[in-house]
Design brief:
The protein is mainly α and about 950 residues long. Helix content is about 60%, strand content about 5%. Strands 1-2-8-7 form a 4-stranded antiparallel beta sheet. The protein has a 4-stranded antiparallel beta sheet with strand order 3-4-6-5. The longest helix has 22 residues, at about 35-55.
């Protein structure tokens, strides 16, 4: 099954087809020589073209990717969608409208997972409702978002991969979880020919005929290509036998992504350790026991024990055995019944896992070895004890057994295997020098050449276990070079070498060897670890997020029981948290915690907690992520990964500060900094924290403190300029450029009326055209301000006009420039030009161009000022009233209201002035209300004298009304 590959590009809009529709419609309208119909046609053309343009923003496609149906949409930076199961075999997806080609593909799609797709264009708010008819109620969906490029992806899949039919194994092998070796040891003892009418039970009822053993395959070859068809299971995909879906080309690798990955946590997956135990072979090839019958009671009871053993009735056997050994402590059948007892207990241990049976089996074998050292079964018994210890991770016990075996049985045919087990025992005890010595001796003196080759391949395991990764890489490479014919027999070489390259930071090499491992051993148990690590490698190297998620998805599908798949699942859920609703978010967090609790991998709990916090961070819920991290940090003070938590805590605080600055909540920045100044923000190893603090001080009007912070930060940046530290900080922190800092310094200098110092900072800006657009605006404004302060108004106007010419295609950036230009023109007496500049702002506002609220308010006020200076008092009143209507409830504008009343007063419209002034209120308005009342009182006094009435005709109406 192939779950993920480099996704094919989305279907493109067909502009010619759309234009042909419009042209045809336009032609029909021109035929109708009626004005009304022309208008209707024109309106419909606009409506149709608007709908087409909206739908054309989003395109998509449906494709078959391995055993998954892959649905993908592109064209939006932010995706507002809904996905829910609307029936037993129906999934409902609500998305923004998409183009016609996408709709056509959707409606014609059908495959083994999705039998049909319907599209309803009449969803709420103009959205489309897509209904997927699933072929089975077992089909599940998985949706996620990617950032670069922004995509919405939904995959449909069957959650379980059908199990491959395996050749019938023996019952014993199934119970013990061990596959039988192709080679069998010779049987010990002789079978009596005189069985009489005694029932006979075959020792292994499921055992194949002896001839079939010629086709047996060694365990070490399982999952490799040489294992034939069975080796093409697991991760193998016939459509992609070279695993090109995981290949990362050089041009896809992004240095910034690699630098950013150093801030992440990665789980150490277990070494691929090849078994050195032959226990399964010994169990499968156990002796065939026989007792020659006679009429003695002891003989009958011994034969009864053998019958119970052969018929696999352990409870009855053990009860009868206890009676027998008490009744006949010196029985001549002692050795055989003790062997039966040992095998029964070991069989029960493999079935139940109970330690009691393991201890009883080991005790029986130790008794047999001590009492019958010269028995034909003594060698088997000794090896059985050693391999039991080896599989139980009892390195000391295994070491003692195999050391003694090699000393006492130098000519044994099992010597090579015992030497291999000795090396494994040393490695288990972390006696790396002794392990290396044991493997080198085996490599040199093994009678079996295959064992010598295996020893060469195992030498790298020793270096890997002591985390000497460069040495491990060297030894594995030597093994592959010396014995290339054995590459497909020993999976440890490529897998462990890939892990070694990963931890040394050579990510392309690591990926290369993981792919080699998968090609040779597609169904090996470590496949789940390998594909998960491949996904992590792709993410580290900056590969498209869709491919990364595909690798994690594949690991989870194919190797769900592997702990590595749990890591992949946690990473997927963490990535998806950004677009989750609350109910789904709660379930996902719970699932991640459960994965961490159940996993056998080290530090999985810490990893899960960091991934949950990262998910909240992606959602922009910095405070929630911060509380989560701080709580874990405080509850686990001895964790060796506290450094990761500390960095994550600082990142969340810093990103929260950045968001506050973006929203202009500078008081919240100061409050947050004060809250954490004694803890997390005490001497933080980040340069963006003081930068945000400086911006907060600047916006709060504390220019001197802001200037100090900017100056200190400038020195710090200059110190690391051009170094690897600067590159890393620019990836992981929100650092300003040197030019941006000079700009900030110039701004605080101007606000502090230090024109000369501001000019010096502006002159140090080397590349003003590379500043962010809003900073370019500020740079020009500052240049104009400096010129103005020096009496060079024309130069200031010139700076502003040059910027308006450069940014005609960026209207959203022009309003503050036109406002500043108008102010310069007013100061220079160019009132007509000023009115024109302010009129452009008004026009942009009417055309729905985004205009900052402060800029718009000032523009309205300045427009009123210009009109008033031009003697257009009525138009000035209208401009001021427009400002009052929009902003009086948001900011103190009593002075503007008083000015409007004064204009009317001066024109003799006392009633209008009184009406305007009547709304003066509040603390700020009281002073102006007092001034207004004094002027109205004066007017009333003047009205008492008739001689003045004739001189002021406008007053006559006031008096007559009273």
């Amino acid at each position: 099954m192939r779950i993920q590959e480099e996704f094919s590009k989305g279907l493109k809009i067909q502009p010619l087809k759309q234009m042909s529709k419009l042209s045809f419609f336009s032609l029909g309208c021109r035929i109708l020589d009626v004005t009304f119909f022309r208008l209707v046609c024109a309106w419909m053309m606009i409506l149709i073209s608007g709908q087409m343009a909206s739908a054309a923003d989003v395109s998509g496609h449906v494709s078959r990717v391995g055993d998954a149906t892959h649905v993908e949409f592109r064209g939006k930076d932010q995706w507002n969608y809904e996905l829910e199961k609307s029936g037993k075999q129906k999934v409902r997806l609500v998305v923004p409208p998409f183009d016609v080609p996408t709709e056509a593909v959707m409606k014609t799609w059908s495959d083994a997972l999705v039998s049909g797709i319907s599209v309803d264009k009449n969803g709420k708010d103009g959205k489309y409702i897509i209904t997927f008819d699933l072929a089975s109620d077992k089909v599940e969906s998985f949706d996620y978002l990617t950032d670069e490029p922004s995509r919405l992806i939904v995959d449909f899949y069957l959650p379980e991969v059908p199990k491959q039919n395996k050749p019938e194994e023996s019952k014993t092998a199934v119970k013990k979880g061990k596959a039988a070796k192709g080679k069998r040891v010779a049987k010990k003892g002789k079978i009596s020919k005189d069985r009489g009418d005694q029932d006979y039970t075959k020792r292994n009822a499921d055992r194949d005929p002896a001839g079939s053993e010629l086709l047996g395959v060694d365990d070490s070859l399982k999952g490799s290509r040489v294992a034939g068809i069975a080796g093409l299971t697991g991760v193998f995909d016939g459509n992609d036998p070279r695993y090109s879906r995981f290949i990362v080309k050089d041009h896809e690798i992004k240095e910034e992504a690699i630098i950013a990955s150093k801030q992440n946590i990665y789980i150490r997956f277990p070494m691929l350790s090849m078994s050195a135990s032959e226990l399964s072979t010994l169990v499968e090839n156990s002796p065939e026991y026989a007792i020659r019958p006679n009429d003695e009671e002891e003989n009958k009871r011994a034969r009864f024990l053998l019958t119970l053993f052969m018929k696999n009735r352990p409870a009855a056997f053990l009860k009868t055995y206890d009676f027998f050994v008490r009744q006949y402590p010196d029985s001549i059948y002692d050795e055989i019944v003790r062997n039966l007892s040992a095998e029964t207990h070991y069989r029960l241990y493999t079935e139940t896992g109970e330690a009691l049976h393991y201890a009883r089996a080991k005790s029986e074998y130790e008794y047999l070895l001590a009492k019958y050292p010269d028995s034909p079964l003594a060698e088997r018994t000794e090896l059985f004890l050693g391999y039991m210890d080896l599989e139980r991770k009892d390195g000391v016990g295994a070491l003692q057994v195999f050391q003694r075996f090699l000393e006492t049985k130098p000519n044994s045919t099992e010597r090579d295997k015992a030497q291999r087990a000795l090396g494994a025992a040393y490695l288990m005890l972390k006696k790396f020098a002794d392990a290396t010595k044991a493997y080198k001796e085996l490599e040199k003196s093994a009678k079996d050449k295959s064992m010598s080759k295996e020893a060469t391949y195992r030498l790298g395991d020793v270096a890997f276990s002591r985390r000497d990764y460069p040495e491990a890489i060297k030894l594995y490479q030597e093994a592959l070079k010396t014995h290339p014919e054995s590459e497909s027999q020993f999976p440890n070489a490529h897998y462990n070498m890939a892990e070694s390259f990963f931890w040394t930071g050579d990510y392309p090499k690591s990926l290369e060897h993981y792919l080699a491992y998968l090609r040779l051993f597609p169904s090996h148990d470590h496949g789940g670890y390998a594909i998960t690590r491949i996904g992590e490698l792709m993410e580290i190297m900056g590969v498209d997020q869709g491919r990364v998620m595909g690798a994690f998805l594949e690991s989870y599908f194919r190797f769900r029981e592997n702990p590595g798949a749990g890591v992949a699942r946690v990473r997927m859920l963490s990535q998806r948290m950004k677009g989750m609703k609350e109910n789904e978010l709660e379930r996902s967090v719970k699932e991640m915690r459960e994965i961490g609790d159940k996993s056998e991998l080290p530090r999985m709990g810490e990893f899960v907690n960091l991934m949950i916090a990262d998910g909240y961070h992606r959602r922009g819920e910095y405070k929630k992520a911060l509380d989560f991290l701080v709580s874990y940090y405080q509850q686990n003070p001895t964790s060796s990964n506290l450094d990761f938590f500390h960095r994550r805590i600082l990142r969340n605080i810093t990103d929260d500060l950045g968001g506050m600055i973006a929203r202009n909540d500078y008081m919240d920045v100061l409050g947050t900094f004060s809250k954490h100044s004694a803890t997390w923000l005490k001497n933080p190893d980040r340069l963006d924290v003081p930068y945000f603090l400086g911006q907060a001080y600047e916006r709060a009007g504390v220019f001197k403190e802001a200037g100090k912070i900017y100056g200190s930060l400038l020195a710090s940046l200059d110190k690391i300029k051009g170094t690897s530290e600067e590159r890393e900080r620019r990836v992981n922190e929100h650092l300003p450029t040197m030019d941006e800092l000079y700009l900030r310094l110039s701004s605080v200098a101007l606000k502090g009326r230090q024109t000369t110092e501001a000019s010096q900072h502006l002159q140090r800006i080397e590349k003003p055209d590379q500043l962010k657009p809003e900073n370019q605006v500020e740079w020009v404004e500052n240049m104009a301000h400096v010129a103005e302060e020096r009496g060079k108004t024309k130069e200031a106007v010139k700076h502003l006009l040059s910027l308006t010419d450069s940014w005609k295609d960026k209207p959203e950036l022009l309003p503050p420039i036109y406002l500043r230009l108008a102010e310069m023109q007013i100061k220079g007496g160019q009132l007509d030009d000023a009115e024109s500049s302010l009129g452009l702002i008004k026009k942009m506002q009417a055309n729905k161009v985004s205009v900052d609220e402060d800029v718009w308010a000032k523009a309205l006020e300045r427009r009123g000022d210009v009109l008033l200076h031009q003697g257009k008092s009525v138009a000035a009143v209208e401009a001021y009233l427009e400002m009052l209507d929009e902003f009086e409830d948001k900011r103190p504008l009593a002075y503007v209201r008083y000015k409007v009343g004064s204009i009317l007063y001066e024109k003799g419209d006392l009633k209008g002035a009184e009406k305007i002034w009547a709304s003066l209120s509040g603390d700020n308005g009281q002073m102006y209300r007092k001034l207004a009342d004094e002027r109205l009182t004066q007017a009333q006094w003047q009205d008492d004298y008739k001689k003045y009435i004739n001189r002021i005709p406008a007053m006559s109406g006031v008096k007559k009304g009273r």
